[in-house]
Amino acid sequence: MKPMLYGGALLAAALLNVNCQSDMKTIKTLPYPVARMDSTVDDYFGTRVADPYRWMEDDHAPETAAWVKAENEVTENYLAQIPYREQVRERLTQLWNYPKYGIPRQVGDYLFFFENDGLQNQSVLYRQKGVDGAKEVFLDPNMLSDNGTLALVDVSFSKDDRYMAYAAAVAGSDWVEIRVMETATGKTLADRIQWVKFSGAAWSGDGFYYSAYDRPDEKTRLSAQNQFQKVYYHRLGTLQSEDRLIYEDPDHPLRYFTPEVSRDDRHLFITASEGTDGTEVLYRATQDPNSRFRVLYPGFADNYYLVECQNGEAIFRTNHQAPNYALVVADLNGTTPETRTLVAEDSTRLLDGATMAGGSLMLSYLDKAHSVVEQYDRTGQPIRQVTLPGLGTVSGFSSEAGDPVTYYAYEGFTAPAAIYRYDTRDGASSLFKESSLPFDPDEYTSEQVTFNSKDGTPVTMFLVHRKDMKRNGKNPVYLYGYGGFNISRTPSFSAQNILLMEQGGIYALVNLRGGGEYGEQWHRAGMLEKKQNVFDDFIAATEYLIAEGYTSAEKLGIAGGSNGGLLVGACMTQRPDLFAVALPAVGVMDMLRFHRFTVGWGWVVEYGCSENEADFPYLYAYSPLHNIHAGVCYPATLVTTADHDDRVVPAHSFKFTATLQAAQGCDHPVLIRIDTDAGHGAGKPTTKKIDEVTDLLSFFFWNTGTRVR
């Protein structure tokens, strides 16, 4: 640019900015579809609650289908008017196009691993002989469907390495089908196991155990409550109808049962749960299939996770009398099992995971929401701390008993998962595979801040941004949270966050109560009647970001999915003044009826249930659907859901959107994006992910007045 034009350029830029702000007012939202309101009313212990959109719970009804079609037309019309939508899509596609690697597993002479060349809809399962062998495709799920919507959600190998079972989900549903392949030839066998949910194959002898439900009614298979899960044994080469029933509990229809087999194939364990928290562990000898199961750990006050069982010694990770978790070992060889502590609880760090590799215990801790890994011997004595590439998130560290080499993945906010090879003998790590990146990670930095919530509780939050970011109150902030089910949110890579930061934005990830980052006490401080603490933490995070000059209410968007969608829905209805944009994804919005659909009953241990008189008041007090008030100005809102979501059924989002559209007290848009051939999120093909993120970021940028360059 010539110096003499500098002043003119400033004037042009100023005019362009004025025009941009003016143009923002020119996007016109089409009239929202008229959603019929009926007279449905429920009585909860003397409180009458209207539910005028109850008819939307029937996802097969023509009226529901017509409303969905009309809403998608309104949403697409709005998004199509955002001038830089295709620019966002193009850059997002570029950022997404990097190789993605999974953690290898040694199976016989081969390493098996998943890999995606960048934009493939589903990652491909490869194998190669040894570390330096040439890779070859073993199973490509992209070839199993026309639109990339078939996803592999579980892969397991038989104990003799001859067979591989994979569980495949279609269109994002939680229902999976188990198929079997020969590892030597890649041939797919005739075995076919259907109506499986939340289970893979637990190999034993010449077959495997799995959990399944009775065949559902086709019309309601994506919405009806799932009951009476059972454990079966399938012998290879036989029909599913011949499978042997191993375990059922007709007195408790709303329980999950997960089978696991010891490494030496001597013991079968069944972990029972009444929901997402608390387990009971049963066991018996595999050599005596007609014997009764014995209770090893009664339920359901604590959690027990099987780490390893060999020679009758079963190692579990548990929070029994250890809120930050400990390792215990149960001796099953005597007439009465005896349990002793193997690795005691660490009072300052969460024991987030434990695996076996090369005869060693690999313990993964969370220290202020980032990974620390330590190696112990089988007697519980420490060997060394693993040197990691940085402060990020680590997964992996599992191998066969005699193999001293294992693999792990490390990722951070600006570093996609890199795969490392670890030798348990000397603690040496070496890089195995690393992605080439379409951006410069040195331009960005992350920090962890601490703020006080409403009740004074310290809460931590990660902030990721350009190194030249200025705290002038003008940065667009994308605040993400979850806060529930003992789930930890730790550093992870996302292409969409790079695009956000390229536009001067800040990605904020807050570690809310209800999550698992700081142990079971942290979890319990945000569940049941204490759930409001989670929303208070999120609101306090927003107030901190504004007070410290990172952003302003006009530049701030909140986002979350599933339980995080509930978080967004609750916070935007409690403090609509704090946010410019709300992006609730596949959210639990109706806290009075969630337990009536598919596996929603499993969340009662986390949320409570409206059918219990003690629980109803607090559920009703924060339920997003029931706290929308006519005439209030709510943030610009883009709700997202999908037609095959059988985890959080789309009726939650339908009813919430219809209610919000009718109540909105200003001209901020209220839109819903309803994807087809997609579910709760897992297994969504790359093309659909890019389409969805394009729309979310375009909507966020536009409604925070962010210039996309």
CATH class of the domain at 67-94 and 439-703: Alpha Beta
Report the major sheet: 8 strands, mixed
Mean pLDDT: 93
Terminal-residue CA separation: 18 Å
Strands side by side in the biggest sheet = 32-33-35-34-36-37-38-39
Which class best fits the helix and strand makeup? alpha+beta
Q: Count of helices?
A: 11
CATH superfamily membership of the domain at 67-94 and 439-703: Alpha/Beta hydrolase fold, catalytic domain
Percentage of residues assigned to helices? 10-25%
CATH architecture of the domain at 67-94 and 439-703, by name, is: 3-Layer(aba) Sandwich
- From the 3D structure, determine the CATH topology of the domain at 67-94 and 439-703: Rossmann fold
Strand percentage lies at 25-35%
User: Per the principal axes of the C-alpha atoms, what is the gross shape?
Assistant: globular
Contiguous low-pLDDT stretches (5 residues minimum) are 1-25
User: What's the gyration radius in Å?
Assistant: 26 Å
Q: Would you mind describing this structure in some detail?
A:
The protein has a domain at 67-94 and 439-703: Rossmann fold, CATH 3.40.50. It is built from eleven helices and 39 strands. The strands form nine sheets. It has an eight-stranded mixed sheet, sandwiched between helices. Strands 3, 4, 5, 6 and 7 form a five-stranded antiparallel sheet that branches. It has a four-stranded antiparallel sheet with strand order 8-9-10-11, with no helix packed on it. The two termini are 18 Å apart.
